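F.,

This is the one I mentioned.
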């Protein structure tokens, strides 16, 4: 019975016996996730930043009801940071306002019309805030 070898070992033996140059390392391609030669590729990518900042670096607090079944929601946009930072800020705002909320696509959504409370908390944290919308 023959001994089983991995594909990488087989390819290494094949390359060594034919005198071919070794293949490029698997981590050379930044979009590569899995390679049959070396298996799963774990890249040390920088944490993804969410949200986009405005040119004047102010946050926009906007009251919205459209597409939400008549319910009022505050959206806070213009914040950039990692998902953990946005979730931490959202948690703090929800606790201060005693309401629900979520982070969706880099925008913090707070349930209800709590513009004054949200603006005060954000200004205490050092953010420049502008109220937008109706």
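My design for it:
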């Amino acid at each position: 019975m023959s001994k089983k070898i991995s594909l990488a070992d087989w390819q290494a033996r094949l390359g060594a016996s034919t005198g071919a140059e070794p293949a490029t390392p698997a981590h050379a391609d930044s979009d590569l996730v899995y390679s049959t030669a070396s298996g799963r590729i774990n890249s040390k990518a920088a944490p993804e930043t969410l949200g986009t900042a405005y040119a004047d670096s102010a946050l926009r607090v906007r009251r919205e009801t459209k597409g939400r079944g008549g319910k009022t929601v505050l959206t806070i946009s213009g914040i950039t940071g990692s998902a953990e930072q946005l979730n931490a800020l959202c948690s703090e705002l929800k606790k201060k306002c005693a309401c629900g909320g979520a982070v969706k696509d880099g925008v913090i959504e707070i349930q209800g019309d709590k513009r004054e409370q949200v603006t005060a908390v954000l200004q205490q944290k050092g953010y420049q805030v502008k109220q937008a919308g109706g």
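The radius of gyration is 25 Å.

Talk soon.
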